[in-house]
Amino acid sequence: MNKVRIVTDSSALFIDPTIVRRYEVTVVPVRLQMGENTYRLGVDIGAEEFLRRIQREDVIPKLIPPTPEDFLDVYKRLNRDVSQIISLHLSARLGQVCHNAKIASQMLLGRCDIEVVDSQTISAGLGMLVDKTGQITSETDDLEDIVRLVRRTIPRIYAVFYVEKMNVIREQGLIGAAQTILGTMLGIMPFLTIEEGQLMIMEKARTHAQAIEKLAEFAMEFASIDQMALLTHTTSLTEPIRLLQDRLALELQGQDFPTMLYDPSIGSFLGADATGLVILEGEEEDIIA
Fold first, then answer.
1. How far is Cα 238 from Cα 244, in angstroms, rounded to an integer?
2. Do 159 and 188 form a contact (C-beta atoms < 8 A)?
3. In which element (H, E) is residue 117 found?
4. Which segments of 80-207 does DSSP mark as H helices, in order?
5. How far apart are CA 258 and CA 200, in angstroms?
6. Three-state SS sequence of 202-266
7. Global pTM?
8. What is the pLDDT of residues 142-160, one digit of tens each?
9. Cα–Cα distance between 207 and 275 in angstroms, integer?
10. What residues does each domain of the chain span?
11. Which CATH class name applies to 4-155?
């Protein structure tokens, strides 16, 4: 058993689900409010059900963070076996998860060494960071070194999405009402990225072909890619997704890029019709330098 335990929240999307068991990761459920109903992500509702419901119902989902008491219960339980915990969570600029985790960590000050880390990302980006953290804790139990190496990984995580409909990003305050109306009339698809933990509109596309080209160009900018995931809103192989897969396979030969449904956490910000790439940039030197 590792001397440092890893905690994250269920906004994390794992390319390889065995990561949780392999590195003994504790996942604290984030809740999702849809209308009058509340669900625990990864427990009561998954990606397929979420996307079906948001496509069918006129409802804007809202993330509800675990409470400080939720985190305190987890930390106390882990503290029975270890005295060091690293707690990695979705961007502090996208919700109160980090804030509540820090409140709980202060309640155990002097009893357990808990480092709460703002991942500045969400979904597959957070999953990639948890994976890297697991690799690091397998090689060292020095919490200070672990945190340093984890923080060095965060700036190497990138995410870009385009959305076909703007109603959810409008509700999130990412675009104005007038822009939404005009964009819908002109068939404009906004591109969003996560910059320093904040979702931001970076540019726009007018057609699926343009959107696919922009995603491919984004991936081709990297000299080295450690991990990459293609996140979609459907299990069906649509023509745009097939074209993007073919283009990436041609331009990035030998690079794995699993195609996955994106999870409700990022869906609550982007809606039910987004497509995007999440990339962990490669690092030349060994992670334990």
1. 10
2. no
3. strand 113-118
4. 97-107, 124-137, 143-153, 167-171, 177-186
5. 25
6. EEEECCHHHHHHHHHHHHHCCCCEEEEEEEECCCCCCHHHHHHHHHHHHHCCCCCCCEEECCHHH
7. 0.91
8. 999 999 999 999 999 999 9
9. 13
10. 4-155, 157-281
11. alpha beta
Token code pair at residue 143: 């919490």
Q: Is 60 exposed, middle or buried (0-12, 13-18, 19+ CB in 10 A)?
A: middle
Given a contact cutoff of 8 angstroms between Cβ atoms, the answer to whether 282 and 224 are in contact is yes
- Cβ neighbors of 128 (< 8 A, separation 6 or more) are 15, 157, 226, 227, 229, 278, 280
Exposure string for 149-187, b = 16+ CB within 10 A, e = fewer: bbeebbebbbbbbbbbbbbbbbbbebbeeebbeebeeee
The CA distance from 250 to 77, in Å, is: 48
Q: Strands 113-118 and 84-89, how do they pair?
A: parallel
Helix axes 143-153, 124-137, angle to 10 degrees: 150
Q: Give the domain 157-281 fold.
A: Hypothetical Protein Tm841; Chain: A;domain 3 (3.30.1180)
Contact 172, 199 (CB under 8 A): yes
**Dihedral pair phi/psi, residue 69, rounded to 5°:** -65, -35
Q: Is 277 helix (H, G, I), strand (E, B) or coil?
A: strand
| Per-residue pLDDT reduced to its tens digit, 30-73 | 999 888 889 888 788 887 888 888 777 777 888 999 999 999 99
* Pair 12, 127: CB distance under 8 Å: yes
The per-residue pLDDT for range 229-277, each reduced to its tens digit, is: 999 988 788 888 999 999 999 999 999 999 999 988 888 888 888 999 9
CA distances from 53 to 122, 129, 168, 238, 285 (A): 21, 29, 14, 20, 45
Higher pLDDT, 286 or 158: 158
Helix (H) or strand (E) run with residue 270 in it? helix 264-270
